[in-house]
Amino acid sequence: MGLLALGTALEWPDAKQKAGQVREWGIEQLLANWRKARGKERDALLWGDEVEYLVVALDDAAKKSRLSLAQAEILKSLAREEALWKSGSGDNKKHSDHDGEEPPHFHPEFGRFMLEATPGQPWGIGFKDLLKVESNMKWRREVAKAHMAPNEVPITLTTFPRLGTKDDYIQPYYPPSGPALRSQFVPDEIANPHIRFPTLAANIRSRRGRKVELNVPVFHDTNTPRPFKDPTVNYDLHNWPEDDDVRNGAAKDDHVYMDAMAFGMGSCCLQITFQAKNMTEGRRLYDQLSPLGPILLALTAATPIYKGFLVDTDVRWNQIGNAVDDRTREELGEAVSTCESRFSDSRTNISQPLKNDRWRIPKSRYASNSTYISQDPRLRKEYFDPDLVVDESIKKRLMDGGMDDLLATHFAHLFIRDPLVIFSEDLEELDLNKSDHFENLQSTNWQHMRFKPPPPDKDDIGWRVEFRSMEIQITDFENAAFSIFIVLITRAILSFDLNFYIPIQRTTENMETAHARDAVNDRRFWFRKDPFASIVPRSAQQSTNGSTLSSGTSSAVNTPPPSPPLGPVETEFDLMTIDDIVNGCADGSFPGLIPLVESYLNSVNVDVETRCFLASYLDLIRKRANGTLWTGARWMREFVAKHPSYKQDSVVSEEITYDLVKAVEEMTIKEGKNGSVGWELLRGRK
Ligand code: ADP
Ligand code: MG
Ligand code: MG
Ligand code: MG
Ligand code: MG
Ligand code: MG
């Protein structure tokens, strides 16, 4: 969430004036911090997950479910309890199942109907910690619930199916629209009222020159009109200049149209942060996990409904990208000056010099990442995007300051953006022992991987890498399974020195592919065939004991053949199904992520009990990849399709939504009661 300092937030025209200064100071802070932290060694293997919830209020009498805007009250109540815990006077009895675990942390999020929860302290290197994750997640849910009104529940759907409809879907009710979002569908009160959030939304809109625009293709069922014209769009509003957007064609036929940051940033996700032992290892993990982003997005797909309609996509990612897309028409490569040129071939504009902006920018600031950063001899120049946009003067400053080309390029790419929320108080004096200006840009570059430098004021935190693409899952069994899977993959990557490099544009393409309905079963993704390909002899590996997730020996995996000379890059990767990628190709061309993880587990001799425990999580991933088990998206589609009141017209009514939320709540209650849910619940989805 970045920093939440209080102060006077600048409106866009003023913020724009100060953007250069913030970038410059941010880069000086980065350089100072990088010089101090680049030699940090032997930081512990720590990791942590972030789970996000929707707070839903259930009205069983009226069979209605609504988003509850109670975030502030719930967090206040949670903070009181945390203070009691800390002072030692809290009621710890109910936490006897969580001996030695710190009480969970709760954080605000963009939506005033959202909560984020993290473990009380990061998880460590021991395998035993993996066994605590699921129960800790369930504990977090219980603690959150205990601070809600009796009819409120924390649920882990990515989006609320009827957000932005004409119902009274929020509690308390506020009608649209307000000065910050200027949405015709949602009120400003939907967002966290902290000045940072309305300013962020308003400045994105102002910078862009119109409202954000989300058009999600509708799912055409047998009774869905063709063309489908979003019946919830009002073309006759005249409250704000932005109300013209829809008259200027913002809402597309056959799409569900949305117009505010809340439709994207109001989505819940599952993020995992790893601490590396040093910067070099962090850079390696960043690169190697990057190609997995779209694969895990498709595997965790859980977003088939927007604004009361079934849509033809299964994941949230691009909708968040669109919800915070602050690019101007010029940066987007659209014509700006005349009316006709709006409809002319955009390619003719690409070559024209820009009048107001510095670059054409191909991606939203929320998008898949666009470059690699590891000083790895296997990183071929062909894997880079030759058209990557970087701020050359910033890159030069970083390199003059001693940073290497790759890392300087990464940050000079992030810093092509403007800072969006600037507090005038922070511009008085540059403090090189802080990272506020750096974080201003870093934390509003929402890429699917994030490289997190150590905070300058905390010696005990090292270089970290965050994996950000996954969708939140309905049950904590699933959330734990995906968290643990990613942890084990990182261990396999480090242990076997795995090579997942593909040209970065293929990952961008994969990210699009992951959006398709049932991509997990029906689509193919670019993936590297030989994960052992190396052009340098791998260093001798030390042996390990079986109690930690160390990056130990690689002896359990076939010794790689001597490296062949480098062939054309195109022969290194292929289109594969998710089943191929996760479970291995039948023809042996790719071994599969699960078999790689199993080899890693064999190599570290984990005890039988732990191995059995982990097996149920790996089974979920395996079976989701091969189509035996459904994604959350598929389960929701089936739920809607089978609902007695569904009319095959793509409409997900209030009644269906209430029943869906109830079914989700029941699933999590059952899961909480039964301990580890195992297969029963998930089989029920077939
Ligand atoms: P952000 O919201 O900026 O991504 P959070 O502060 O919410 O970051 O924390 C992300 C996760 O990182 C949490 O699960 C937390 O437990 C974990 N974490 C905290 N410190 C470390 C660390 N030193 N190494 C690895 N993970 C950490
Ligand atoms: Mg967080
Ligand atoms: Mg965050
Ligand atoms: Mg969050
Ligand atoms: Mg995070
Ligand atoms: Mg298959």
From TrEMBL:
Residues 538-569 are annotated as: Disordered. Keywords: ATP-binding, Glutathione biosynthesis, Ligase, Nucleotide-binding. It is an enzyme of class 6 (ligase). GO terms for biological process: glutathione biosynthetic process. GO terms for molecular function: ATP binding; glutamate-cysteine ligase activity. SUPFAM superfamilies: Glutamine synthetase/guanido kinase (SSF55931). PANTHER family: GLUTAMATE CYSTEINE LIGASE (PTHR11164), GLUTAMATE--CYSTEINE LIGASE CATALYTIC SUBUNIT (PTHR11164:SF0). Belongs to the glutamate--cysteine ligase type 3 family. This is Glutamate--cysteine ligase. It comes from Penicillium salamii.
